[in-house]
Amino acid sequence: MLRLDLKDQQVSQEAVIESGTTAYDNWVAAGPGVYRQFWFFDVQNAEEVLLNGSDPVVVEKGPYTYRTRYLAKENITFNFNDTVSFLLPAGAIFEPAMSVGPEEDKVTSLNLAVAAAYTLVPKALHRMLENLIKASNSSLFQRRTVNELLWGYMDPMLKEKLGLFYPYNGTFDGIYNIYTGKDDIAKVGMIDRWRGERSLHFWDDKYCDMINGTDATSFPPFVDKKKPLFFFSPDICRSVSAGFEESLDLKGIEVYRYTLQEDTLASPTVNPANQCFCRDPKTTRNCSLAGVLDISSCQDGRPIFISLPHFLYGSPYLRDGVKGLNPIKEDHYTFLDVEPTTGFTLRFAKRIQVNMMYGPSDVITVLKKVKDYTIFPLVWMNETASLDDPTADRIKEELLSRIQMLEVVWRAMLGSGVSILALCSIVLCVAAGCRNMLL
Which of 90, 92, 295, 74 is nearest to 176 (CA)? Predict the structure, then answer.
């Protein structure tokens, strides 16, 4: 019992988010670097799609790599209710050595303005939209640089700046309010509020609007691999869970690999809990479509669909509409490697694909040959980070070594106890022998 108490106490002290602990040192710093790798889907037959209604044929182009999350948390404020609030600034620095080419490389991709306007503009006004498309010389597809597609360009039709991740640099993800674990270590890292709210307002449903778990950078200590880990991801506007897959060695530290479950984006016919995530029966084939999440409600109405890369675990219908996709689990799944004693996430790969939708029209010329609604893949992203050697050494020295020391102390105390017990037995035997001799 002494062994468990000492170990729990040491880990609990170091896992609390407060000045002087291992958890705080890792949490407050910008870290060794998180990287976002982007792969674009370059359209090979744009003219055939427009003139003949052919299915788009795409070729994956990438990676184009950026260093992100290199900025430390800002406005860190410890609150009276065992929580700490902070802002997480966003920034991206291009890494040429980790990319297949420069940011000026061009990609033929879906026209963001045309696709968005097709969904957002009522059909009664599509004639006006047709005139805007023609006047600006726009089409269903466009050729842009990597930099423009990611971070923004001036669109000739809408006369405003558009981009897949515009605006990004100089923005903040949050404000977050999380538990420090000082009063209850089982709640450390758990999100109390995001943007001042304890629930989301995207899904019009109590269950789907729940903010569960942490931000996935860490979890409460003493991880039980029989139980799923919950985390909230603002990129997909919802909370998800990950299940234990296997134990691995990472730089001499045992980690548990957790992976996003196959039924996370399953259709409600397979996973009824996803019913409240189905926003539009028309574009989701009456909520039977698996593998995509319509997040337009948290994107100011823009028809954005999130999926795993290459529609991994998605309905065949998604890949039938766009040729050239090839989902491979090892390359396209999301995982977290968590140190089970402390709950620290020491390596991860978060893989997400951004898609937009377009469909047929009797009025808009560039869509007249389109036969059915198409959820078109624009880019997929691998956000990844891994424990570096100095941090691994620090974790082993500052925390795990202390736990090992407690093990040694416990064994020494146990050994001393056994020795004392043996000594007492000998003394008793000797005393008893002497008494017998006197008798």
Answer: 74
pTM of the model: 0.88
Say if residues 387 and 249 touch (Cβ distance below 8 Å).
Answer: no
Parent domain of 222:
32-70+92-169+199-387
Please write the tens of the pLDDT for every residue from 187-245: 999 999 999 999 999 999 999 999 999 999 999 999 999 999 999 999 899 999 999 99
Where do we find the tokens 């790599």?
65
- Domain assignment present for 25: no
Cα(334)–Cα(381) distance, rounded to whole angstroms?
11
DSSP designation for 345: E
CA 40 to CA 65: how far, in whole Å? 12
Tell me whether strands 74-78 and 238-250 are parallel, antiparallel or unpaired: unpaired
Are the C-beta atoms of residues 35 and 200 closer than 8 Å to each other?
no
Average pLDDT estimate for 179-183: 94
Say how many domains are in the chain: 1
Residue 302, CA atoms < 13 Å, CB-side half-sphere: 17
Q: What is the pLDDT of residue 427?
A: 43
Q: Which two tokens stand for residue 218?
A: 């860490």
Higher pLDDT pick, 372 / 413: 372
State residue 282's pLDDT score.
77
User: What H or E segment, with its residue span, contains residue 310?
Assistant: none
Give residue 21's Cα distance to chain centre. Answer: 26
Kindly write down the DSSP assignment for every residue of 8-60, as one continuous string. HHHHHHHHS-STTSHHHHHHHS--S-EEEEEEEEEES-HHHHHHH-PPPBEEE
Residue 5 covered by a domain: no
Compute the residue count for the chain: 439
CA dihedral (149, 38, 306, 387) in degrees, to 10, reads: -140
Answer for the pair 144, 41: CB distance below 8 angstroms, yes or no.
Answer: no
**Average pLDDT value for residue range 73-84:** 93
Q: Which amino acid is at 282?
A: K
Cβ count near 44 (within 10 Å): 14
R_g of the chain, CA atoms, integer Å: 28
Residue 416 placed within a domain: no
Q: How far apart are CA 34 and CA 38, in angstroms?
A: 13
The 3-state DSSP class for residue 109 equals strand
In a domain, 282, yes or no: yes
CA dihedral 353, 356, 360, 363 (to 10 degrees): -160
